[in-house]
Specification:
Nucleotidyltransferase, domain 5, five-stranded mixed sheet, 3 helices, 5 strands
Length: 112
């Protein structure tokens, strides 16, 4: 399964980003192969609509779930429409690697 994690940097040990639509990077992680790839997010450069634009980017990349700190209402609506599970965490306290480990351990719960 393909999951995405909002990140401040482009490495697997980067600090997570608390902001979904304006996260500078996303780490695309394949839970079956453990392969990962950094994808730059254009959301921080947009005047508006960053959450929806970011959601489209992740849908185009095959996302099934996304881990971030905070999802705005428009992003939530777009992700729900795309069938993507949203998982909120205290992003200021986690690296991407730690978030993935928590996800794989079943410690994260989906937003409604």
């Amino acid at each position: 399964m393909i999951i995405f994690i909002s990140a401040m940097g482009s490495s697997f040990d980067s600090q997570m980003s608390a902001r979904y639509g304006r996260a500078p990077w996303f780490i695309r992680y394949d839970t079956e192969t453990s392969d990962w790839q950094a994808i730059e997010n254009m959301g921080p450069n947009l005047q508006g609509g960053a959450g929806v634009s970011t959601s489209q980017l992740l849908m185009d990349q095959g996302a099934k779930a996304v881990i971030s700190g905070h999802f705005g209402p428009n992003a939530k609506q777009a992700l729900q429409a795309g069938g993507i599970t949203m998982l909120s965490v205290d992003a200021d306290q986690l690296t991407v690697d730690e978030a993935v480990r928590q996800y794989q351990s079943g410690l994260l719960t989906a937003n409604e």
